[in-house]
Inverse folding.
């Protein structure tokens, strides 16, 4: 009796708490954007994978070399998490990728060519956010399989995957399940409904391990990832451009651009960076001696003549 | 100081603040709540199980919903502090109740006979006598807090916990081990200091305190 | 938002698909049960030994403190890097939470047995083994179950981290919800974890009462966990 009553009270309390937590309705994060960081300090954020942390470190180091104050807030998570952080002023600058950014801003976006994607991103961004120059460096999502699986099924391209899908467990970061170019996109472009989706990480150790040990047969990895050549994984061609152009681009709070040095140095980084360089930097970070990302960033900046 | 790809001292300082501020806040909140639960059977019946349930809310979920509840920014450290305060309260209300329970009835009667008013009795007699149990509770809350802060790394906030996420993303085992050791050392140092504080505040209980801790 | 939470709970796919609530609940329970079982196999014999002989008491105190300070997240990712994907690293990491309360409960139960009873048992010629099994163990049961209760509660609340390293369980809703910024899913997951914890708590409370002999205890507060309650990180 006593237990039942206590249990009832607990349930009510727990539900009330959660109701309060979820109160408001709609997307609570879209509400009142607040002022960005005090003064001229630029808060640099990053997503939760190595390459993005490095790009953020490169931005932060270059800015501070130019005498601009920075704070680092790396590893925030997926775009679904850091973008609201940009909007509410938690962070001011993040290295982003044009194609995925566009699909985040507009789930129905169809542009795939680099220039179209970039132009559309500029259009769709909220007024307080700006993208600077896009870099020729590209890092795309790609559907990747093991060499053995590719050979066995004579598979080189996503448009051949249809008949196999019913037997494929697909692995990717949790957000891949709902993003337009993710599971919904593959289904739409290639008529492929996977047997199961398994939540792993953004091109990290879980995805690589799961693909290697066969817990998944296909996975979402990034094209600049050294684990692809290291494990002899095969990138499936994407003839229908499910994955749009994916140029590295600084995404920044417009109020931080009053100092022209900010855009100057970030644009310079974009110009100097290319896909091969990015792949190479990833490789350096992955090396067994695990170099300090800050050192890798400084080295590259000085070799590029920026710092 | 740069170690394992991280500025270790600011991270450690941040970790200490994020872990200990909630324990302090939690203690301040738990004292009146615990006193209420101690003095009223009804309150005890609701409060003690409720604090137990609070503790089962997964911390990641709590960190993420905080901005919605508080209206704070997504990456505001306040989110972590408030979430951890909830856990501290969940632990400490019970400690306060147990501490007050520990004070023998005769002592209370003697206090009343000496002319103590309820508040005076609470601060002059009950709380001082409850110190050993309270300190034991605070030690548990503090040590747990150090471990919980690290979960914030999943949302880009965990101070030393970022060594875990970063190390994991890069297959960098040494960085993870370093993070574990640093958090462990910090937590045990704080634990030791709190134990000393307890002995200073309640020297008579020094002999009993470790026994309690064991159980 | 509250109505979307209800909708989330009542969606038919939630109850039929292979990633629906029943599957996730069972996985979560499975991880919890396995972890507590393995932890008990390790902790109970050690606790019995320490309680019976009085040797190695420092181990109980030291372990309780040290393990509590160990961040679960770090331990888990370390084990995954060292061992690989799967259940083993998760169970090992969670076990570190379950061992201290089980050990403390067993130890406290055995060492708290009235010395006169033990002496009497020795007096009638029982062997040490018989004393342990026939006298100390039955008397220690209530505290052992109290330890089991604390251990289970901690593990069930923390097992959500299994999802961070790609396993299932209720943490899936929380980790996926976080990555997809889907608050309804997260809240749903959190409610389910809390519900499961409450159900287990009530069941173990019942068990504890059942093994407590004689007069019903006046308070249902377990002795283990008085100042040493739950520690969670998920």
């Amino acid at each position: 009796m006593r237990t039942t009553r206590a249990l009832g009270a607990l349930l009510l309390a727990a539900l009330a708490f959660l109701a309060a937590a979820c109160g408001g309705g709609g997307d609570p994060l879209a509400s009142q954007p607040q002022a960005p960081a005090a003064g001229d300090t630029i808060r640099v954020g990053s997503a939760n994978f190595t390459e993005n942390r490095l790009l953020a470190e490169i931005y932060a180091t270059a800015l501070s070399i130019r005498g601009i104050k920075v704070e680092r807030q790396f590893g925030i998570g997926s775009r679904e998490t850091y973008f609201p952080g940009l909007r509410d002023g938690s962070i001011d600058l993040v290295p982003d990728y044009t194609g995925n950014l566009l699909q985040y801003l507009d789930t129905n976006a169809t542009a795939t060519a680099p220039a179209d994607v970039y132009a559309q991103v500029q259009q769709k961004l909220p007024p307080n956010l700006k993208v600077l120059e896009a870099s020729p460096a590209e890092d795309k999502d790609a559907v990747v399989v093991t060499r053995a699986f590719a050979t066995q099924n004579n598979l080189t391209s996503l448009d051949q995957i249809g008949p196999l899908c019913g037997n494929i467990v697909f692995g990717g970061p949790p957000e891949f399940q709902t993003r337009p170019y993710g599971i919904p996109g593959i289904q739409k472009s290639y008529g492929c409904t996977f047997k199961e989706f398994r939540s792993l990480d953004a091109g990290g150790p879980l995805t690589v391990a799961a693909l290697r040990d066969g817990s998944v047969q296909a996975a979402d990895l990034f094209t600049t990832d050294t684990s692809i050549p290291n494990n002899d994984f095969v990138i499936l061609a994407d003839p229908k451009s499910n994955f749009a152009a994916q140029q590295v681009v600084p995404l920044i709070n417009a109020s931080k651009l009053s100092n022209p040095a900010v855009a100057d140095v970030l644009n310079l980084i974009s110009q100097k960076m290319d896909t091969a360089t990015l792949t190479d930097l990833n490789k350096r970070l992955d090396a067994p001696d695990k170099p300090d990302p800050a050192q890798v960033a400084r080295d590259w900046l000085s070799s590029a003549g920026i710092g | 100081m740069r170690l394992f790809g991280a500025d270790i001292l600011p991270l450690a300082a941040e970790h200490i603040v994020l872990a200990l501020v909630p324990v302090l806040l939690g203690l301040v909140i738990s004292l009146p709540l615990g006193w209420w639960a101690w003095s009223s059977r009804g309150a005890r019946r609701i409060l003690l199980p409720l604090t137990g349930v609070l503790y089962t809310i997964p911390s990641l979920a709590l960190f993420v919903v905080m901005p919605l509840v508080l209206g704070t920014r997504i990456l505001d450290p306040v989110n972590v502090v408030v979430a951890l305060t909830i856990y501290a309260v969940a632990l400490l209300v019970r400690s306060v109740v147990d501490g007050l329970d520990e004070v023998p009835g005769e002592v209370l009667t003697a206090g009343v006979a000496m002319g103590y008013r309820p508040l005076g009795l609470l601060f002059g007699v009950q709380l001082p006598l409850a110190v050993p149990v309270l300190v034991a509770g605070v030690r548990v809350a503090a040590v747990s807090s150090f471990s919980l802060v690290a979960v914030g790394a999943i949302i880009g906030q965990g101070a030393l916990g970022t060594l875990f996420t970063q190390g994991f993303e890069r297959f960098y085992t040494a960085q993870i081990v370093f993070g574990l050791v640093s958090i462990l050392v910090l937590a045990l140092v704080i634990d030791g200091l709190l134990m000393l504080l307890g002995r200073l505040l309640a020297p008579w209980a020094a002999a009993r305190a470790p026994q309690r801790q064991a159980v | 938002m509250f109505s979307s939470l209800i909708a989330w709970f009542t969606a038919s796919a939630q109850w039929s698909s292979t990633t629906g609530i029943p599957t996730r609940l069972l996985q979560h329970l499975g991880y919890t049960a396995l972890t507590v079982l393995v932890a008990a196999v390790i902790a109970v014999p050690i606790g019995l030994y320490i309680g019976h002989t009085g040797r190695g008491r420092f181990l109980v105190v030291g372990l309780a403190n040290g393990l509590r300070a160990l961040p679960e997240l770090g331990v888990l990712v370390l084990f995954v890097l060292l061992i690989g994907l799967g259940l083993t690293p998760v169970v090992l990491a969670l076990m570190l939470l379950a061992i201290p309360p089980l050990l403390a409960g067993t130890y406290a139960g055995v060492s708290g047995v009235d010395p006169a009873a033990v002496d009497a048992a020795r007096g009638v010629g029982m062997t040490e083994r018989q004393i342990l099994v026939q006298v100390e163990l039955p008397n220690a049961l209530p505290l052992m179950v109290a330890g089991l209760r604390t251990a289970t509660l901690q593990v069930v609340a923390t097992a959500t981290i299994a999802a961070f390293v790609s396993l299932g369980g209720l943490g899936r809703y929380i980790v996926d919800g976080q990555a997809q910024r889907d608050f309804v899913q997260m809240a749903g997951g959190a409610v389910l974890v809390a519900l499961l914890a409450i159900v287990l708590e009530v069941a173990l409370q019942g068990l504890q009462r059942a093994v407590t002999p004689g007069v019903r205890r006046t308070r249902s507060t377990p002795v283990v966990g008085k100042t040493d309650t739950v520690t969670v990180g998920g």
Notes: Chain C touches chain B through 54 residues (CB under 8 Å). Chain C has ten helices and no strands. Confidence is low (pLDDT under 50) at residues 216-234 of chain C.
